[in-house]
Every structure is written in C-alpha cells, then in structure tokens.
Design goal:
about 20% strand; about 45% helix; about 150 residues; 4-stranded mixed beta sheet
C-alpha cells in the first residue's frame, strides 16, 4: 500500500495517483515480489529544512529526503520500506528550471526517493551511474523524458 499525505496548502495541487504510479513503477522495476508499503509526504520547505538538519546535520531545505525502514507492518499486512518526503516549493522551482510540469518533477522525486528506500545511492560515480540508469528507465516507463544531471 502506498500512503500519500499532503500538507493542506498543497492538497488541491496534487493528484495522488501520479505519485502512487511513480512509486509502484519503481517497486515493479526493482522486482519487489511482495508489494511493500511506503509513505509519500508532500510538504513545505520548512519541514524539509527541519528534517534535513535533524537527520543529516544540514541546515537548509532540499527537494526530497528518504527515510528507509524495513519491517513487517501488521496494520498494513505488508513490508514497510519507509518514507519519502518532498518539498513542493522545491519541486515547483525545479520543474520551472527544467522546463516541465510540476507533476513530472514530483514523479521524478518520488522515483528518486523510492530508489533510496530500496538501497540505491549516488555517493560515488559507480553508484550514481547505476541509480541514474534505473531512474531514467523508470521515468521513461512513466512517459517522462527527463534528463537529470544532479539530484
């Protein structure tokens, strides 16, 4: 189950299904057989700044943070892989800079964050090449032709 929470002031701007579809595509592409659960939260810069400072020691906002988990959730009756938290204002800004709709940027950030939940990273060139390749393949499956140089 993919749970979506959206801060009230962004609720009317978000179509939950595009976020769910992006996460589901990642899970399928990465071959997860048990349909795990995860949470996607759309919020503001302030919340991302607070989380970034608390968990990474970086006192600034960012576009997406992932909080991996790996446990059986008895309420959801599935494996829970974690949370993806996205700053809507950053998604809007990046969409404008990259020349596409905010919905496409949100999908990109969901894909990116979900890949992090599954253990992918871009800390070195080899990891980055692998993650970007998978990310690109998933975005194409979603019908998005987005080239990302840095996330």
């Amino acid at each position: 189950m993919i749970l979506i929470t959206v801060q009230d002031n962004f609720r009317e701007l978000i179509a939950d299904q595009i976020l769910k579809s992006a996460a589901e595509t990642v899970l399928l592409e990465c071959g997860l057989p048990d349909s795990p659960s995860l949470l996607i939260r759309i919020t503001d810069d302030e919340e991302l700044n607070t989380l970034n400072l608390k968990y990474r020691g970086i006192d600034k906002t960012t576009d997406v943070l992932s909080f991996p988990a790996d446990f059986e959730d008895p309420d959801l009756e599935s494996r829970y892989v974690g949370d993806v938290v996205i700053a809507f204002p950053r998604a809007e800004e990046q969409a404008q800079k990259r020349g596409h709709f905010v919905e496409a940027e949100l999908q990109l950030l969901v894909v990116h964050g979900t890949l992090h939940l599954l253990g992918y990273d871009h800390g070195d060139k080899t990891e980055k090449k692998e993650m970007w390749s998978i990310q690109s393949r998933i975005l194409k499956k979603l019908g998005l032709d987005i080239e990302v140089e840095d996330n």
